Amino acid sequence: MAVHHGKEGEVVVGGSAVGELTSFTLETTGDVVESTQMSDGAKTFIAGRTSFSGTLEMHFDEADSVQTQLTAGSSVTFKLLPEGSSTGDRKFEGAGIITGMSVSQPLDGVVARNVTFQGTGALTIGTES
After folding, report:
1. For the domain that residue 77 is a member of, what is the CATH number?
2. What is the pLDDT of residues 21-69, one digit of tens each?
3. What is the domain extent for residue 66?
4. Measured between alpha carbons, how far is 76 from 66 in angstroms, rounded to an integer?
């Protein structure tokens, strides 16, 4: 079983890497629809639609052109690369809409930018080529 260190991860938006990235989260969900008949003794379900969303966390960098594109309402294409971007590394690829962007200003720390997104369409899971 392979494990990976977080330092290997990358996020690419519109073909360019997000600078100063510190973490990312991807969440996938699948709807279920009840298919129980009145005569059934137990509930049954069938799979419905799937969706995905996520969060990108980074150090604030006003000079990073990718970061400046990540504003609420923006449509983006992206690749989330938890193993890095070498040939054969796992990738999660899709399109999404930025649903929020916040800047956190701690007294004794690094200024951070957090971005949330909602996927639109299907999430493609594959490997880098």
Report:
1. 2.40.10
2. 999 999 999 999 999 999 999 999 999 999 999 999 999 999 999 999 9
3. 6-29+48-127
4. 10
